[in-house]
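Onboarding guide, step 5: your first structure request.
Type a short instruction followed by the sequence, for example:

Predict the 3D structure of this protein.
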Amino acid sequence: MKKFKSDIEIARNSKLKPISKILKKINVPDNPRAFSPMGRHIAKINFEFLNKLKKKKDGHLILVTAITPTPAGEGKTTTSVGLNDGLNKIGEKSIVCLREPSLGPSFGMKGGAAGGGYAQVVPMEQINLHFTGDFHAITSAHNLLSAMIDNHIYWGNKLNIDEKKIVWKRVMDMNDRALRFIDINTSGVAKDFRRVDGFDITVASEVMAIFCLAKDLNDLEKKIGNITIAYNKEGQSIFAKDLNAHGPMTVLLKEAIRPNVTQSLECNPAIIHGGPFANIAHGCNSVIATTAALKLSDYVVTEAGFGADLGAEKFLNIKCRKAGLKPSCVVIVATIRALKMHGGVEKGNLKKEDTASLKKGLINLERHILNIKKFGLEPIVAINHFSLDTKKEIDVVLNFCNDMKVQVSECKHWAMGGKGTTDLAKKVVKICKNSKKSSFKFLYEDSLNLWDKIEKIVKEIYGGDRVIANEDVKEKLKVFENNGYKNLPVCIAKTQYSFSTDPKLKGAPSNHEIPIREVRLSSGAEFIVVVCGSIMTMPGLPKVPAAYNIKLNKKGDVEGLF
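The system replies with structure tokens like these:
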């Protein structure tokens, strides 16, 4: 049996070009005013250069999303990288825009997020680990605000903050369930100011959301200043700007906010910047990165986290709304393996041909297709090919898509790189050129009240029957509306593994209930977070974390990172 090289072996054996040559492909000049090198193969683009691009015409925006994730894997990032390589392979000028991986899943269950096989972004080890330090800057900015809140209370509490109504937690970029709830100031000089606090993961931080939705440094500082940190004893909101925290926090983010440029294995440009989760945040790379790419290229391939019910919904309803973006095409990634799991097959039995279960599992793909069409967009299905997929199984998916009058392409980028996605690339280009016929629209209007926005997503995207919430949740939503936040979009935090809040319900469950556990106001990022079911904003590590297998070998090379 043929032995396949691991992702890290493929990445390590690749021949990378100096970053200046990659930037030259997208007309970024080799001078200090245009970019700052971060080593030989990574750079940050400077705002001095980006500001000169504002009058340039935008390229086409291609959103890559997927069916509901399963343990079998879907390969959304791999497909994004592969499609970008495929577009460049057929002579089109294209850039892929991705999120930065979080250390939490890299050492937890998911592993890295740099693609796989021969469709990767590199240098893979740096991207999956500390990269350019952006996440550390975001973590530091967030925790500076946390420190300033407790310091203000310690030195007399001039703002009359109610210690029981502080809504700003601390963060760290690691999965650690032990930090979800903590007691602070239990001893020492601050023992008279004891209170309950907790940690979220950095990618769930409102600072991360603001970082990825800000249009420039001034907008970043303004949004940070508008963060609601607590309420005073009269029930009035206290903002970060009331503590004068927005200035120093912006200073910590000054360098991080510039987009990072790397390359694929085929030496095509990749912009990797920002990284909120899609199950507990809005799941898209930064607006600055996406808008810069649209000025620098004819086609921009970007992804949204997890399945289309989470990542794509938030990309379209939140990111596109905030940034004025309009996708030309949506690619839905599916695998035969994952569809069989949605049809009831256990992971251990996926090697067997099973067209009956595959046909049952297609209900999941069908709902995602119909959901994307609700936004007035034309989807195309990318079948991410695995070596054990049979012709009969592939034909089942091809025929299904043809019956739905949806374009479909079998993709072999994992094994062949860009050569394996040229068919998908050609079809995507055709859709983009006809995109003027599309009528992109949001799922809901700004003027709809917050509860109705939640219901709209639950019923039309999740296939749910109703939303359940206690009076405290409903009252908070009314308070948000009365305080001027009615027009904000909603960001629903729930499990990525099902349309419902039960991760065990595969396929396309219908008529289920969506229970809301709590709602949070992100007044800086300008959306309402709706936490549903048992989803946690500070994940825990699995029983056997990926960290168990990550180490340095005798040569000093990293092993076990994927």
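Each response can be followed by summary notes, for example: The two ends are 22 Å apart (CA to CA).
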